[in-house]
Amino acid sequence: ENHSAPPDVTTYTSEHSIQVERPQGSTARVAPKYGNAELMETGDGVPVSSRVSAKIQQLVNTLKRPKRPPLREFFVDDFEELLEGKMTVFQKGRPDGAKPWLREKALAAAQLASSPRPPAPAAQMWHPMGVFFPFNNLVKRKKNFKINFTIFVLIGKLWTRSMKVAYNILHKLGTKQEPMVRPGDRVTLVFPNNDPAAFMVAFYGCLLAEVVPVPIEVPLTRKDAGSQQIGFLLGSCGVTVALTSDACHKGLPKSPTGEIPQFKGWPKLLWFVTESKHLSKPPRDWFPHIKDANNDTAYIEYKTCKDGSVLGVTVTRIALLTHCQALTQACGYTEAETIVNVLDFKKDVGLWHGILTVSMFFFILCEYQVLKGHCLGVPRCTGPACYDSQGCHILFPCTSLRKSDYFSPLIFFFFTSGSISSCDAFLNVFQSKGLRQEVICPCASSPEALTVAIRRPTDDSNQPPGRGVLSMHGLTYGVIRVDSEEKLSVLTVQDVGLVMPGALPCKTSWFGNPKVSLLTSVAVSTRVSGVMISVYGIKDLCFSVLQVFPMTSSGGPITEYPFIRTGLLGFIGPGGLVFVIGKMDGLMVVSGRRHNADDIVATALAVEPMKFVYRGRIAVFSVSVLHDERIVIVAEQRPDSTEEDSFQWMSRVLQAIDSIHQVGVYCLALVPANTLPKTPLGGIHLSETKQLFLEGSLHPCNVLMCPHTCVTNLPKPRQKQPEIGPASVMVGNLVSGKRIAQASGRDLGQIEDNDQARKFLFLSEVLQWRAQTTPDHVLYTLLNCRGTIANSLTCVQLHKRAEKIAVMLMERGHLQDGDHVALVYPPGIDLIAAFYGCLYAGCVPITVRPPHPQNIATTLPTVKMIVEVSRSACLMTTQLICKLLRSREAAAAVDVRTWPPVLDTDDLPKKRPAQIYKPSNPETLAYLDFSVSTTGMLAGVKMSHAATSAFCRSIKLQCELYPSREVAICLDPYCGLGFVLWCLCSVYSGHQSILIPPSELETNPALWLLAVSQYKVRDTFCSYSVMELCTKGLGSQTESLKARGLDLSRVRTCVVVAEERPRIALTQSFSKLFKDLGLHPRAVSTSLGCRVNLAICLQGTSGPDPTTVYVDMRALRHDRVRLVERGSPHSLPLMESGKILPGVRIIIANPETKGPLGDSHLGEIWVHSTHNASGYFTIYGDETLQSDHFNSRLSFGDTQTIWARTGYLGFLRRTELTDANG
Fold first, then answer.
1. What gap in Å lies between CA 312 and CA 298, rounded to an integer?
2. In the CATH scheme, what is the homologous superfamily, with its name and number, of domain 760-773+788-954?
3. Which residues form the AMP-dependent synthetase/ligase domain (predicted)?
4. Which terminus of the chain, N or C, has less C-beta within 10 A?
5. Degrees (nearest 5) of the Cα angle 493, 475, 683?
6. In whole angstroms, what is the distance from residue 339 CA to residue 364 CA?
């Protein structure tokens, strides 16, 4: 038969429908007529009198029976309009295999004589005529091991009790003005598995009240496994009310005060008992609003994913009705049948067949405890029976049934798991008791697609069910290959029948292009039968799972209706039979091959497990090790099993898995009994077990690990590849379109004749020029701890004071040109005057931090070491520090006789020098910059006069400094950029520097910010220690500072001076803390300097805001830079280190090959600038170290430029805001 043109399945007209081959047995069965209250029929069709008394019958006849609504009210085809609308394609899948097979079309409502009504109207319709109809029975076991029917629910009671529950939910919770539950809200149902009647009453009561029920399992403790995920689902659904029974409410955990505590991760709930004695009777004029089936949510079923997260699958009312019709048609249900249900009635198949589809059925629920203790007392089923594999195994001991035809009345045996081994074992045990093979009907279902497929019952015993023997090795590669049964590495599967009536099956591949004979994920289009399902609150997941549009090989969609991914792995066989071999949640991809966790468990169980481990307590999952998945098996060990026996069993399991599945096991662990986390129904909570394994909290008693057999992708040791040199890397980057990672700041421009840089090459000349042209211009202002001016210097004052110091050096110190002088001063004006006095005398100054008076024993040796290493011929300081150096505490730390001559600058001569020294060459040494690194290494670099002038010029252009500007500086003036800003820049640029010693902030933390606000400073510089001190000391004083008039709105740039990576957390905290005082977040930035170049990057007054990127730390370990989104796993925030200074060029080079790298590659930062340091100053003159750090050349590319190696690793990132010039 040609199926190239699919039939029209969008309408329920009989003239276009495909004829369905129904089994003769199903159609021949005549339903007993319970619609007549006077006559009933026996099994032989002989009418007998009713047991209803005459008075009751008269009362029933006299009561005005409500008019039966037309049939259309129950079967509405209003969703046909939805089918005709075009759907937006959100995600297009790819088909796999043959064309979709449509076996059976859903019948119209008129054709379903026994089709179910919508749940609420059906109960309403059967209420007046079925008041005494037994609707629900619960089989329980008494103490004397006898079966007892404990709960007997009539259809009339179901209606009245559901009405009472609906009324109380809507009107008795909260107040009349503010009810807690309104139509459309979500409530959770918490009922145990031994109380189906209470659950059914509450469920139907929610449907009558138009409230969305969310059934969950009963929590046992406050910290159940997976309880937090259930609470997250309830919170996302907005659940505030929990419906439960009286017995369940008494069994919940209680606090010492008798209240139910809030479970871990759960929202605050109001527990409402639905027993009739606790409810108010609704008024006579109150009636629930029963409307037609529509796209409103009927209920939400929870689903636990592979990672342990819990999702809520919403089922609409039209989907509920349509699926009930499809189940009735597929199973051939008729009224007054008896169903034995052993499944969980709160979800999945048990909910559909035990609660929703049972319209005028006699429903019997059997618990597992009943089957375990007294399986002989199970009622004889004369209709369908719903079992799973666990229920079948429990019935195996019941081989001594009294009657040989005990199972002969069974219409069909509804088997949910579809396991062929369980079906065959059950048939072999009970075939002698009348069980027929043709009544065994496995099915396939999932929370997303509901019932996917079911095998129809048939009377033809000669037609065997479909089954196949597949190669397990081929399945791991996604290939379906038939094999022989003699081999161990085969998988025998059976069909689960045809898809549901009106559904359209399709196989969609999860990888690559469609190929023939591939193992794929089964997708079903139930939109043709009206099912509308979604995942609550997760829109993207709805589109990727529930709104899939498979594509043909030509690229077009196979239908206009969306498909639903069922999460089942399988294929469609001959005749449209569906074969399911596993689930996506149990799939493990190891080295490119796919293995099913259930198959691994079955192999482990085949190795005589009963002596060593518990059969149902084995967990199989995969963990990621070295970029690949590895298999882990965890089982509970029996207490009587010895370590030697367990080790032998574990060894045999590993051998069996290796030979059958051809995959190695990373770890096989045995834990003590009852230690694995359990689900509410008693199974192993897989995700919690995996989390315990990853955390190292599993505490196994026996472990067998074989990493050498499964971890085959160990990284090889790095080897130098001589054939791939820096030239090849550069050419490869150019070929691949990557640019060389280099950038430069602005060009310094052509120097004009009247320019200051042309006239004066040395800072001493600039100071003399300013003293002549602008003698009264204030260059420096020093503040004390109270914020008042402690001292100030104009151009002429600084010039005259420097002259007196030069005279003192030449006369008292007897120093000559080129001698080194150590300047040991606290932060202030004296340090600046002493520095320029050395320049006037031709000496080389070295700034040294003075010893701390309270910690002389630790700080004084550092001063002595710098003086010795720098070969200082003289030491200049203040009178106070001179006394400190000669004190007893100092003598205990350093011998006083080892100090060079100490000059006190508090007593200066009044003479002027005969001549001010002028360097003969700009490359001569101007000063030495000593600094102690974080590793304790003392490094001093040489700065020439040319580099010093170029440095000041670059900062002047970057920060736009001119005489009318005021800059606040709160830095230590002893090394790096802090010394240049404190002592040099004001003389060169002419701006006024407001000097704030950082030590004063220990007394007054607000001194720096108050000075910035008082002097209306636009640019300020500080250190991380100052910023941290302000953040911690002023965190609770922002309101008081604001009341004192502190205003930071004028601050344009607040630069943190450092020689390290920007501290993002500290800068962001500082910005957020003082945002209320007017500080703009974009004003805070950082600078970058090092020993070879004191300032590479510095945020200027103009330019884009500093950029922050997030990089993958795992890629950084491989010297690669991969940008990720904020909040991504393994992400590291990196902040831009300011803008490149004018006259500075940067390139990223490989530190080993010294070749240039491309963009987004991690390498060493090399810098070329006119203000680079000349080299290290060492006593022994290590020229090799100097040449390597300050005079490096690229091995390929621009080999002529001389670069300085910073020793910092970094990368360049080009953005739309900056170009190649910075």
1. 12
2. ANL, N-terminal domain (3.40.50.12780)
3. 767-1177
4. N
5. 65
6. 6
pLDDT tens column, 684-706: 888 889 999 999 999 999 999 88
Cα 266 → chain centroid: 20
Alpha carbons 241 and 211: distance in angstroms, whole number: 11
- Cβ neighbors of 424 (< 8 A, separation 6 or more) are none
448: tokens are 């997303």
- Placement of tokens 């020098």 in the chain: 913
The C-alpha atoms of residue 443 and residue 978 are separated, in whole angstroms, by 78
Neighbouring C-beta atoms of residue 1145, cutoff 10 Å? 17
Across 737-774, b (16+ Cβ under 10 Å) vs e yields: eeebbbbbbbebeeeeeeebbeebbbbbbbbbbbbeee
405-427 pLDDT tens trace: 667 777 777 777 767 777 777 77
Contact 345, 355 (CB under 8 A): yes
pLDDT at residue 825, as a whole number: 94
In order of 73, 326, 462, the CA distances from 77 in angstroms are 10, 14, 40
User: Which overall architecture, per CATH, does domain 119-325 show?
Assistant: 3-Layer(aba) Sandwich (3.40)
The fraction of the chain above a pLDDT of 70, given in percent, is: 74
Using an 8 Å Cβ cutoff, are 763 and 951 in contact? Answer: no
pTM, rounded to two decimals: 0.52
- pLDDT of 136 reads 47
**Class of domain 591-710 as given by CATH:** alpha beta
Task: Kindly compute the dihedral angle of the four CA atoms of residues 394, 395, 399, 405, in this order, to the nearest 10 degrees.
Answer: 180
Q: What stretch(es) of the chain map to CATH 3.40.50.12780?
A: 119-325, 760-773+788-954
Structure tokens at 377: 């007392």
Give the Cα separation of 1210 and 1192 in Å (integer).
18
Angle ∠(852,857,863) on CA atoms, nearest 5: 60
Relative to beta strand 147-154, strand 134-141 is antiparallel
Nearest partner of 193 among 304, 323, 354, judged by Cα = 354
The Cα 719–Cα 722 span in angstroms is 9
Residues 6+ apart with CB under 8 A from 460: 23, 438
Q: Return the DSSP state at 1067.
A: H
Q: Residue 764 is encoded by which pair of tokens? A: 């001493």
At position 451, the amino acid (one-letter code) is T
Separation CA 653–CA 527 (nearest Å): 45
Residues forming a β-bridge with 613: 637
Contact 371, 387 (CB under 8 A): no
Question: What is the 3 state secondary structure string of 276-331?
Answer: HHHCCCCCCCCCCCCCCCCCCEEEEEEEECCCCCEEEEEEEHHHHHHHHHHHHHHH
At 195-248, the pLDDT tens digits run: 888 898 999 999 999 999 999 988 877 777 777 888 888 998 899 999 999 988
In the chain, ranges of CATH 3.30.300.30 domains: 591-710
Handedness of CA 209, 214, 216, 220 (dihedral sign): negative
What are phi and psi for residue 884, nearest 5 degrees? -65, -40
Does the pLDDT at position 288 exceed 70? yes
What's the average model confidence in pLDDT over 496-503? 83
From the list 428, 362, 350, the residue with the least C-alpha distance to 388 is 350
Task: Report whether 299 contacts 315 (CB < 8 A).
Answer: yes
